[in-house]
Amino acid sequence: MKHAALLGTGSCLPQKVLTNNDLEKIVETSDEWITSRTGIHTRRIASRGEENFRLAARAAEKALEMADTRATEIELIIVATFSPHMMMPSTACFVQAEIGAENAFAYDVNAACSGFLYGLDLADKYIAARPDMKILLIGSETLSAHVDWSDRNTCILFGDGAGAVVLSGSDSRGVQASKLYSDGRLWNLLYMDSPESLNPDLVQKDRQGCHIQMSGRDVFKFAVRSMEDAVKKLLTQENLTVDDLALVIPHQANVRILNKLMERLGIPVDKVYINVDRYGNTSAASIPIALDEVNRQNGLQPGDTVLFCSFGGGFTWGALLMKW
Ligand code: ACO
């Protein structure tokens, strides 16, 4: 059976850089606090002209160029996001129009920070059925529009950006196996409300607005435990050990979460790709941005096994293995 393999990768980050020192002027915080608790030094913030679908489209164009593929050859566009350009139509439809992928069908996936892995798993299923299909999968977020800039617990964590991959079927490369999970009972530990309803019968009086709300310590603990469990189950299922992994590309939420996770899994830190220090947490975009950086630095050799893992609002979490 053929699996979804990379033909090309691309990414796009907004121009504006927001440093920890800049944040000291917005909320009561310090560079020392943010660096020691999260490992984040800077994040990118979108401006007008850098809307979610535009970042996504620029990342897609770079991935298409690397894949030597025209936009009209793409049959499916999936955008993973929880900060869509509009509630309707999907950001994927805006991307379709922006890049001229007129032969594609397009839709969004919302699994918060796990969105890219959910999308990769989905793309793999399409390709199992139609191996010659070319799929554009994008993780793209403009979280700066959704954080409460007076809440120091959350506004220091997030950033904007997009990463894209072009996928098609391969016998020897690509997605090897995945394990995805969610637990909707834990929704209120990490969530973002919908815009106010105009139907007075549906308006909830106790809403705090449409900002990211988070119980940081609970998220931290759950993130470590859930990713550890997913990775261990996936490696056992595939009869692999951590020594078989060439590289781990995790969701980039927080350096402390990643250090703790790798310590529990027994994976040395030099096998883990980290860029959260530069971009903050870009949710569904974090893995494809990191993947594009690894790819453009020729960080992997044919035959290498790469592990991806993520967690996010829902809760959603999972792990996925890819043969390079
Ligand atoms: N600057 C200075 N002080 C701060 C800041 C800040 N930016 N934020 C919080 N504090 C204070 C708190 O008010 C608290 O003060 P208090 O003791 O007087 O009450 C103190 O620092 C400690 O706060 P904690 O929340 O206990 O700090 P903690 O060590 O847990 O670190 C953090 C907080 C960084 C948020 C951590 O819990 C974390 O990383 N959690 C995971 C968050 C995450 O990854 N979220 C994204 C999920 S992915 C997705 O789906 C979107």
Q: How would you explain this protein's 3D organization?
A:
This protein is of the alpha/beta class and 324 residues long. The protein has 2 domains: 3-171, Thiolase/Chalcone synthase (Peroxisomal Thiolase, Chain A, domain 1, 3-Layer(aba) Sandwich); 176-195 and 206-323, Peroxisomal Thiolase, Chain A, domain 1 (3-Layer(aba) Sandwich). The chain is 31% helix and 25% strand. The chain contains 9 helices and 13 strands. The chain has a 5-stranded mixed β-sheet. A 4-stranded mixed β-sheet has the order 8-13-12-11, with helices on both faces. Helix 4 links the parallel strand 4 (76-80) and strand 5. Helix 3 (52-66) crosses helix 4 and helix 6 (216-237) runs parallel beside helix 7 (255-265). 49% of the residues are buried. The site of acetyl coenzyme *A has 23 residues, from helix 2 and helix 6.
Output mean pLDDT: 96
Query: How widely separated are the two ends?
Result: 17 Å
Can you tell me the CATH superfamily of the largest domain? Thiolase/Chalcone synthase
Strand content: 25-35%
Strand order of the largest sheet: 1-7-6-4-5
CATH topology (level 3) name of the largest domain: Peroxisomal Thiolase, Chain A, domain 1
Helix-strand topology string: EEHHEHEHEHEEEEEHEHHHEE
- Rg from alpha-carbon coordinates: 19 Å
Architecture of the largest domain, according to CATH?
3-Layer(aba) Sandwich
Low-pLDDT sequence parts: none
User: How many individual β-strands?
Assistant: 13
CATH domain class name of the largest domain: Alpha Beta
Report the bound ligands by name, code or SMILES: acetyl coenzyme *A
Coarse structural class: alpha/beta
Number of self-contained structural domains: 2
Tell the overall outline. Answer: globular
